[in-house]
Structure formats: C-alpha cells, structure tokens
Batch of 4 targets.
Target 1
Amino acid sequence: MSEIKNILDSEGGLGQVAVERAVAEVRSGRPVIIKAGRSHLMMLCVEALDERHVATFEALGKRRARLLLPAPRLRRLGLDRMKPGAIALPTIDLARIATLALELGARIDAPVATLSRLDLAALELVRVALVLPAVIAFPVSVRDIEGEGLVRVEAAAIEAYRRNAVRDLHIVGRAPVPLEGAPETEFVIFRGGEGLRDQVAVIVGKPDFAAPVTVRLHSACLTGDLFGSLKCDCGDQLRHTARFMAENGGGVLLYLDQEGRGNGLSNKMRAYKLQAQGFDTYDADEVLGFDHDQRGFDFAAEMLKQIGVSQVHVMTNNPLKIAALETAGLEVVSDRRILGRTTDQNVRYLASKRDKAGHFIDMDSAPAQTGGKE
C-alpha cells in the first residue's frame, strides 16, 4: 500500500484526491463529511435535498442542523452583511429551506450566526463543485457515521485546493486544428486546475514567444460561443479574437472552462431565468448567492508560462483579468478592447458589465446587430 500512497502523493497529494472525490459526491447529490481535528460536519448541497433525507438528517442532526448561505444571498434576504452566515434549522423543513435559499422576495426569519471553519469549508466545496451555494450542515460524531461509507475530507485540504490545483496543471495533448479565419492554429490541452476540467490554449499563427504575445483569456460560454445567443457578446469576442490574431502576427487564446463567470452551466441557466423576469446579470447572480465574479485566473497565467509566454498584449475589457495576469508575474505590456455587437437582448448586459464591474465598454463604439431576434 505504501507504493499506492506514493503515487497519490506524487499526483497532487492525498488531500487533493480527497477534495476531488468530495466534489464528485457533492455533484452527485450525496452527503460529505468535512473534518478538522476531532470535529466532523455532515453537509449536503441544498439542491440535492429531498424527502428521502429528512428523517435521517433530523435523527443525526439532533436539532442542530443549519442552513449555510453566502453573503450575497443573505443581502437578498434583507441583511446588510458582507460575510456568509448560518440559520438554525430545528427541523428539516423543505419548504422553509427552499424559501431561504432561492425564493424571490424571501426575508430572513431567524438570527444569523457566524460560520465555523468547517462551515466555510462546506461552502467552498460547493463552489468548486459548481452547484447552488447553499448547504445543509450539522455536526456528527465518528460513531454516527461509522461504517456508512461516506467520503471524508479535511477542511485544510479544501482550503488549499484551489491554490494547489494551479501547481498540478499540465499538458495532456496538442494538435493542429485549422479554424475558419485562422487556418494555422494549434490546440494545447491542459488538465488540472479546479475540478480537473480540461482547459485549452489555442495558439494562432506563429507568435514570437521571446517578444510580447497577444493574448485573450476567454471563459467558455456554451450559449454564446456555440449557439450564437443574442444575450451576450461572447461568441463575437471569441471569433473576432481568432481572426485578429491570425491577421496580426499570431497570439494565444485561452479557452477556459469557467461557464457563467465561474458559477457553472446549471447556475447560469438559473440566472438566465431570473434575467427573463427583469433582473440584470449581476443582480440575478446575487439572488442565487454569487458575488459578481467567481472566476480565478491564476491557472490561466500558469498555462501561459508553461507554453513560454512571459510578456503579453492582452485583449480584454475586464480590468480583473489584467490585474490577475500582473499578480501572477506576467508583464502586461498593453491592453486592447474587444467588442461584440450590441443587440436588443444584450444591451442591458453590456451596460451592467460597464457600470457594475468596471468593464471598459464604450457602447457607442460597439457595432449594432442586424437581422433577426432571439
């Protein structure tokens, strides 16, 4: 068994492996045990909670269960609060939990307590798992869970996971993939980062890596990139970037699996439903419990370093991306705007990014969409 342990240690450490297994359990809707010292916490994401869990959780929780909510959702419940908190659940009342976690217009109905270290680790775990950021949690004893086969993970491993995941990023494949408008293109596939999701560095043309390289960090947008949604400018930005690089000495386009500003595809669809009811993109995310932007770009910087890029001309409207690359040790020589078309459906979205997140967007400079509606 020592040989197996050595293999696990060499591939990111036992703690990383435990977090990845816990992420799989969370996404599958099963409880996970988080521990620190002699303390153990059973947690389950709210979106997986149903009638099957009620009797078991009430017996194990011994009336000590709590609903853990992030600060944005607590603000939506009427609190002036910048930190997450916990609401006591004397009984596992599914209707009350759903109201507090998701319902529009819901208000706080009980005192909110400060989170423990284990509680904070539970919220971080669901964030990495890309599920709704709301958790049912309660303390348990080792005797309660003995022989139950539940995945257990140290709080310290969850706390270190994102930082360590950057270190484990590595290339797993590369091949030429000619693109329309950019026929001389190579795809370099990285594995690692959060959740072991594959990330892509698209090398367009033959950029000189000894000089500043034109770079764009593009977060995946299934609806815009693939289906041509009129609700955003992502697809336009993606295709315009590839053509620009092909016509201007090449570059590197990082295609990052960070759908919905890092919230995941299912939460993006929840936010879209709220937008259809009148919320802007950031208010919709806050209703669900998300801050303005959940993404991290440190692993993107590591991808660039691994292919030999150290100085960049970055194509972006987002000041956070510029700051992240500089913080990671890359030299940002210049930045260039990349604008998509404005449509009746995306004009509010673009204005929100400009006004609420500080994006460099000149609405008067963006070309207007012609043709049909969504």
Note: Residues 370-374 have pLDDT under 50 and may be disordered.
Target 2
Amino acid sequence: MDNSPTSIDSSGLDLTAAAIEEKQHLQKHFGRKEILFFTICTLVGIDTIGAIASAGAQAFSWLIILALVFFIPSALLFAELGTAFPEEGGPYIWARLAFGRLPGTINNFLYWITNPVWMGGTLTLVVVAAVETFLRNGEPLSTFWFYAVGLVFIWVGIFASILSFRVGKWIPIAGAYARFIVLGLFTFSIILYANKFGINGPSFHDFGVSWPGLVAVIALILFNFVGFENPNSAGSEMKDAQRDVPFAVFRSAIVAIVLYGVPIFGVILVLPTSQVSGLGGFIDSVKATFRVFGGTLAADGTVTLTGLGLIMGNLAAVLFILCVLSSGVAWLMGSDRALAVSGYDGAAPRWLGVFSKKYGTPVRVNVISGIVASVVLVAVRVLSEGDTAKYFGVVLNVAISTTLMSYIAIFPSLWKLRVSHPDTPRVYRAPAAKFLSVWLTLVVVFATVQVLAPGLGDEWFGADYLPDGWTQDEKWRYLLIELIPLALFIGIAIIFWAVGKRELKRK
C-alpha cells in the first residue's frame, strides 16, 4: 500500500496516503461535554489516592504546591497545543512535528504502553481490593476468582474502547458522575464520623514540607497531574477543538484539584499514616467512615459493616469500580488512537494504523492493549505469589515511569512548535511558552529519576523512600524490575520506527 506523503494539512503536517484513507473512517461525536467528562476521568484516578495519603500530611501540602507550580502551568501549555494542532493522535503529532518521527515514535510507544500495563496491573488490583473489602467483607478472592474478576474488568474496558465515541463516551460520563457521588458520600461520612467518634488527625506541624517529602511523593503526584492532552488523541473526532479544548482543560483542572484534595485530606484525617496502604488506603478509609451508618470495630481495628453501613459500602464498591473502569477506558481510548495514528503516519507498522469503518476506532490496537493487560495481570499474580500489595507499587511505578518519560518530548514541543510553525493560527496562546516548556520538562525529568531510583539525591532506597513491602537490600532488584521493561519498550519502539520508515519509502 502506498504510504508516501501526499499532502500538507493546515497544521503543516505531511499527510500520508494511509492517513487520508484512515481519517475518512473517523466519526465526530466528541463535543464539549464529552471532552470535559473525558478529561476529568483522565486526570482523576482514584486508584492512587491511598498511595499519596500513605505519605502522610506532608503529601497533601505538596499536592497543593504542585497543583500551583506544575498542574496549572501544564493546563496553559496544553490549551495552546490542543487548539493550535487539533490533529488525530494529539501528543504523538506534537512530538513528531517538533522533533521528528524517531523521537515521536519512542515517545508515543511509552505513552501507549503505560495504559495496558496500568490497566492490567494497578487498576485491576484496586478493583480486586474493592471487591474483597466491601462485597466479600475482607475475605480474599481465590486464584480462580482473582483471574475471573480481573479479566472481566479488563475486557469490559477493552470492549468499551472499541465502541465508537457515540456509545463508548458514556463510560467516562458515568465515571465522572460516579466520582462526584463517591466524593460526596465520603465527605458526608467524614463529617458524621468526626461528630460521633472524633478525629485524631495530624497536627498543623505535620503539614510542613521538606526536601525528603518532595522526593518521596513528586512522581506519584505528577502521575495524577498529567492527562490534559489525552482527549486530543481524538482531535479529528472533536466537533470544535478550538472552542471546546480550553473550556474542558481549565474546568477539569479545578475539578481535579478538588477531587484529589478532598479525599486525600479525608484519608489523612481518618486513618493513621501507619494504617494507610498504597493499595487499599482510600478503600479502607471509606469503610472506616461508613461505620457511622452501621458497623462494628474490633479490638484489632477491623471494621465490619452492617445494616445501612453494609448497603452504603456495597454501593461505594460499585461506584469505585466504575470510577476505576472509566479511568482505564478514557486513557485507552486516547493512547490507542495515538499509537494507531503513528501506524498510518509511517512511524510504526502500517497494520497498526487501521480504524474500523463501522466504529471509527483502532480495533486492532484496542485488542492488543487487552492482551497486554491480561498478560500483566497474570504476571503480577505469579510473580507476587499472592502478595499483591508488594507488587502493586512496582507495577504502578513502571506505569509512572513510562508516563512521565513520554512528557519529556511533549512539554518542549510547545516552544519548538512556536519556532518551527510560527504561522499556525493559535486562538489561545500560553504565556511564557519558553519558560513553561523548560520548567515543566525539568520537573518531569526529576520526577522520573525518583521513580526509577527512589530517594536519589537524598538517600537512594533509604528508609523514608522504601516502596511497600521492600527492604533496603532489594534496591538492585527493584531497579532491574523498573529498567528491564523500560529498555524493552524503547527497543520495541525503535523496531516500530524502522518498520514504519521502510514502509513509508515504498512507492
């Protein structure tokens, strides 16, 4: 098939014949409301609330600080990129236009692979924890039911990703509303809990910030503060990107800060830091506060919900699973499209860059994401030998590292595209573009280093930076577990680029 460049679009992008062919299958069902809810589900992933809260009161302080110095500046940056270059494949297209196909391919593969790894690892483990905590009253799932619950969760998400936005958009919309309900119930229960039992929360001094505190939480917080660009992966499916993207970006930023800040603050108030785990911290806090509706507290601290408390707990479990599912679906919908675009753009094998004529979605990439997620689920279960809490942090950090590394090429593209494409119309221009690009890139580089070598710059793998379940003697094992997948992903990306380059030259 002829994949050679044939025309230049309004963004200065040299379109291939394959791109022109595949873009005819895209369907414009992505309006202002859908983009807003999609962005909320992309930004607000409640699977990491417990992990942030487990770092204590200082983590909340850093959450607010990083919201001001990182989250809001990134919103300004993506408001410009998303309106000036509203092309299908968003973040891949920006990196490719700015730095070429090879950097764009490596960046894009890391951007994509994060999500099936995250879906099959951390998201599925959180869903299992919610089922065990609420629906089974703390009773662990057997191996059979662990796989059954996990695989059903993964493939429901994949099926939703395959559907056109006209249908699939309802998962992110429902997930956004589920977040509002869970937040409301949890906030209400905290008020009742404080009135009935009192709160032995941290002191004002505990909220003070320190360098070790920043080193410990920056990567995790930044992982929650990225995603404004994800809806632009479906840029050509938007009804009016230049009008709707800024609307969604700035409103979702405000919503995300509230939806992160309130539950994290609530977890810190309700549970002692020593009792908050990365895997189940938010779930345990919800269960603890729901005791005000009906339940008992054993001498060992175990909460058993009864009556209305049990009903509320089961409702929370269902809403929690919907929240997690919508996060996974929103990210898969975006990142799968970005990978498919690189396929028809000559930066990956052409067979990846196929959009369904019926659904307007990259079904092949969707299915591959499901397979990868399923393999990760099985691998986590086998490697952890049932100790999912220990490997929750490892899988989460693999996802964090690949995510953050992908922004090392995305953030500088604002400045580079200002220089290389000065005539491209910009209905919104971010202030201090050069500063934003440099500052955000430096922050994300620093955070990436902290994922791969926790505590580096203070005390690598020191006691204050140990992931759950790990000891100081295991730092090299941990480092290899992080670096080997990363090296593998970069190697595959280079192979994709080489194959795409060869196909691009065919006439």
Note: The first strand starts at residue 5 and ends at 8.
Target 3
Amino acid sequence: MKKICEVSGKEFEITKTDLKFYKKMKVPIPKLCPKERQRRRQAFINLNNLYSRKDWTWTKKIISPFSADKDFNVLPFGIWFSDKINGKNYAREFNFSRWFFKQFNDLQKVELRWDRVVYNSENSHWSLNISNSKNTYLVIWWDSLEDTYYCDNVSRSRDVCDGNESSDISLWYEIIQTRKSNRVLWCYLWSKL
C-alpha cells in the first residue's frame, strides 16, 4: 500500500507485515512517513546541545540539555534523585474523556526533569550522562574518561578528541568505532589495532 506523508508530502510504502502489526496492536495506519515518525520520537530528547539556564526555582544557574526558552521544570540531578522531591506531587489522574496528548502535554509542563547526569566526575561541567571522568568537555554518554573532548559514546579512554562509539583508546583524534588502540591521528571503523 502506498501513502503520502502529511508532513513531507513524499510517498512511502506500508507492507503487508506492517498492516498485520498495526491490526494486532489495534492502532491506525500511520499518516506520516518513517522519517517523520522518527523525528517526532526524537523530539523528546536532546543529546547534542547543552545550555546555561536557571533551575526550577529560577535562582541558580545550571547546565542542561533544555534551553531557557523551554517551559520545563529542570533541577540538578542530585536533587532530582534525592528524597527532597516527591514525584507523586506531580502525578495526574488519567481522564478517559479527554484526549491523551492534551493530558500528556499538561504533564510535560509540570513534571520535573534533571539537568544532566555527571556522576563522580571532576571538571566535566559541560558534559552529559557521564561518570568517573576527569577534564571532559562536550562529552555525551559513557564513563571512565580523562582529558576527552567532543565525544559521544566513548568509554575507558584518555586524551581523545572527536571520538564516537569507541573504548579503551588513548591519544586519538577523529575516531569512530574503534577498540583497544592508541596513538593514531585519524581512524574510521577499525578495531583492535
């Protein structure tokens, strides 16, 4: 079956397998192409940018993946996981007579979000979701790093700049999907050098 995406205007195909799945799940046939559906799913998370903004009390500056123009209640990670906050205070009863997405939007406006996860790390203020690291800048996701900059999904490494999906490396610049290696200037899809 061919459909036209309501957002992009491009034609996309829905296979027989897709139709069986939609029927089994009791959901309607999508009106958006797969690319546009993926964009909507990814709209709820930002792993590429960090911003300086005020926390939920509007008194303290924090670093967050949510920009200041977003109307979210953002608070420091340590407070979010502490006993100071009771999540039940932000819960809502589901009203079956109201449209789900209206209720979901209302919940988004009041729920609390943590700023970023930086656990047991030193001099790593502008990084996101890291632990046991030292001297990192714009590093997203992983642990046990030292002197590492502009990396995504890199672990157990040191002295790395512009790395992606790599581990157990040192003295690297521009590296993608590499394991257990050191002292190379540029690499793409190598492993165990």
Note: The CA atoms of residues 94 and 103 lie 8 Å apart.
Target 4
Amino acid sequence: MTIRLNNNSVITFISDSIRKYGYQPEDIIGKSVFDMVHPEDKEKTAKRIA
C-alpha cells in the first residue's frame, strides 16, 4: 500500500489497495494520518514520519 502525506501529516494519496481493508481512498484522503493511528502508537508513528 502506498500512502503520501503532506508536511502536516495529512494524507494526500492512498493506493486502491486500501479497499481490501474495507476503506475507500476518497474517505481517507484529507485526513490526518494520526486520526488513523491507535493512541498508544501515535508517538512511535510521529518518530517514523520524521
């Protein structure tokens, strides 16, 4: 799966393979990646993005 984020960690692109998880790309694009991450994993995610 390919995901692209802007400088504010907002999802600007997500590949169609997200559909196999029950999501539509247009429902994900425009959301903060942190809206999709479990609260316990947000710090780890921020480090990986940086």
Note: The first helix runs from residue 25 to 28.
